[in-house]
Amino acid sequence: MSSTDNTTAESTDTTTMFTCQSCGMPIESGAYCDHCTDEAGNLQSFDERFRRMSVWQTKSHPNDSPEQVEKATLEYMAAMPAWHDHPRVAAR
Predict the structure, then answer these.
(1) Cβ partners under 8 Å of residue 3, min gap 6
(2) Mean pLDDT over residues 22-40, rounded?
(3) For 18-51, what is the HEC assignment?
(4) Domain residues of the chain, as ranges?
(5) Is 0.85 topped by the overall pTM?
(6) What element of type H or E holds 10?
(7) How far is CA 64 from CA 48, 49, 55, 68, in A?
(8) Residue 36 burial class via C-beta count within 10 angstroms: exposed 0-12, middle 13-18, buried 19 and up
(9) How many CA atoms lie within 13 A of 91 on its CB side?
């Protein structure tokens, strides 16, 4: 982990992979993946990321109630460096 940008790098046989600080997806460089950034490369808002992550959670667990989806999404986001201090995540 770099002390200046908090990116996590994992070495493989051929390349170094980083992990998106917003969603955990493997990326080749930077702090965030293309799914978590806007057209200018800035991290999307919490509300936008929460909505999109909830949609993914619902597709992955179609039998979960909306309350279960919200709880699971907030728990996942709590483990992500970009969101763990966000007031909505901290209040969970």
Answers:
(1) none
(2) 96
(3) EECCCCCCEECCCCCCHHHECCCCCECCHHHHHH
(4) 8-90
(5) no
(6) strand 8-11
(7) 21, 19, 12, 6
(8) buried
(9) 4
